[in-house]
Design brief:
Helix content is 60%, strand content 6%. It is mainly α. The radius of gyration is 41 Å and the shape is rod-shaped.
């Protein structure tokens, strides 16, 4: 007997070799046995279950991604607003800038544009914009104190403090 040849067992027609999965066709020829076909209904149900499961996982991942994007957007907006407010208030401490700003208010177009950009034409602001400015300034003061490590005094004490002005870059003559 040669090595690797199937061993005859004589059990039943079409299964006369060990180790080789065969069957006999209608003409008596041996054919490799076909693998049984899985039940289509079972297979479809499994695929649907996998698809639902996968869809659920994807939806949950998308929800997490959307929540993370929304949180990142809120965080970025808060950072930009706080940093912008600080920067802009510091810019308003520059006397030369404020002087030029007041000079330009004589220009009607500049005056109108600035009023619209500041939204002073809005119904809530037009009544008392100064109260909004005070509230915003107090919020900014509190924020800066927290960030700089200083303890925030009660609001009444903060209002009594003089406004600090930045030194201007005027040339001094001797």
């Amino acid at each position: 007997m040669s090595a690797g040849a199937p061993i005859a067992c004589g059990c039943s027609p079409g299964a006369d070799t060990i180790g080789v999965d065969t069957r006999t066709d209608s003409k008596g020829r041996q054919q490799p046995a076909r693998k049984p076909k899985p039940d289509r209904a079972v297979q479809a149900a499994v695929e649907r279950a996998i698809s639902r499961s996968e869809a659920t996982k994807r939806e949950e991942a998308q929800d997490r991604s959307d929540a993370e994007k929304e949180e990142a957007s809120r965080r970025d907006t808060m950072l930009r607003i706080a940093a912008g407010a600080f920067s802009n208030v510091i810019a308003l401490a520059n006397e030369a800038f404020v002087a030029e700003l007041h000079k330009r208010l004589a220009d009607e177009l500049f005056y109108t544009d600035l009023r619209q950009l500041m939204r002073l034409h809005c119904s809530g602001m037009s009544n008392d914009p100064i109260s909004y400015i005070r509230a915003g300034a107090q919020a900014l003061i509190g924020l800066v104190r927290k960030l700089s490590g200083a303890q925030s005094p009660p609001m009444a004490q903060a209002r009594r403090r003089p406004i600090l002005r930045r030194p201007t870059n005027k040339a001094t003559t001797s």
